[in-house]
Amino acid sequence: MRVLLVHCHPRPDSLSAALASAVRAALEGAGHEVDWRDLYAEGFDPVLGAEERGRYHDVPGNLLGLEDHAASLRAAEALVLVYPTWWYGLPAMLKGWLDRVWAPGVAFHLGAGAIEPGLKNIRRLAVVTTYGSPWWLLLYFGRPDRKLIGRGLRRLCAPGCRLDWHALTRMDGRSPAECAAFLRRVEHAFARW
Predict the structure, then answer these.
(1) How many Å apart are CA 165 and CA 81, to the nearest integer?
(2) Pick from 153, 94, 80: nearest CA to 119
(3) What SS3 class is residue 163?
(4) Structural contact between residues 33 and 4, judged by C-beta atoms closer than 8 angstroms
(5) Contact between residue 90 and residue 9 where contact means Cβ atoms under 8 Å apart
């Protein structure tokens, strides 16, 4: 399977970076082709500027400078997002990637009543994330990141697209041993893909 792996964390020495590397190694070890995107390492510009927003519905002009990212998304059969959850949501860099790359003509098409899915090639979605909050507080706030991905992004993928969610809560209070155990669980889960 061709997997697009998108990592979003500014520090290469973070648990998030270690998780992304473990996911990549596990997927490649299982025989999958991995298209690796590290948004911070690439210097991805998350800002949807005025000129770009002006041509947002001008397909394919809306992808100027983003053709390689759009091609990766269109070629993927699975998408894995590895990121820390900050303020109950996606890091700004990852949200900007969605704003700019999940554009008309790529992620969706404008239909008569609602948007029509454009990424029917993606049959599986996975998230690997960390939270500073305990699980019960995430429930209290309605798990906004899970709703965005599980209800919004998944709707634009293949019918019946599977969603896998791997999360470590209370990140700031975890011991190194607990973080290492989570990393091993994630690695094991992706080795079985």
Answers:
(1) 10
(2) 153
(3) strand
(4) no
(5) no
Instruction: Give the integer Cα–Cα distance in Å for 125 and 82.
Output: 11
Angle between helices 92-101 and 67-75 (to 10 degrees): 80
CATH fold, domain 2-191, is Rossmann fold (3.40.50)
- 26-77 pLDDT, tens digit per residue, is 999 999 999 999 999 999 999 999 999 999 999 988 999 999 999 999 999 9
Residue 125 burial by Cβ neighbours in a 10 Å radius (0-12, 13-18, 19+) = buried
- Tens digits of residue pLDDT in 10-24: 999 999 999 999 999
Domain extents for the chain?
A: 2-191
Query: Which amino acid is residue 128, in one-letter code?
Result: V
